[in-house]
Amino acid sequence: MGDPGMALREEDVRRIVDYVKPWLRDLVSETAAPRSHDISAQIVRVEEELKGQRELFAERFKAIDQRFVAMDQRFSDMQKHMDQRFSDTQKHMDQRFSDMQQRMDQRFTDMQKQMDTRFESMDKRFGTMQWTMLFGFTIVTVAVTVFGLLA
Hints:
Strand content: under 5%
Radius of gyration: 61 Å
Shape: rod-shaped
Helix content: over 70%
Mean pLDDT: 88
């Protein structure tokens, strides 16, 4: 073999390139064509898979949206139910307070009547006692005057 440090002339390099160039073109076209077909087939498969994934995601998002709509409906129904229960409870409490107020008013009226009756009976007793005392003082005064004149 030759000296590894031997330099090639430019003319020699051109002759080698002219000789190898057609062979390299054939080699590249043979190897690149199947690969590019393989790559394009892979790209098509990847695109189809991505399309399938997009469709799957779209279906899942649609299902999630439907769940949210259903949950909104349930929350709305629950809110209506709670509003109705609150309204019913409020009406019941208002009725109970009204009934209690009527009972208290009736008790107060009854107590007022009892007190009026007691005061009237006490007034009669005091009136009777007043007349009895007046009659007694009158008798005592008459008796003292009669005994004072006779004595």
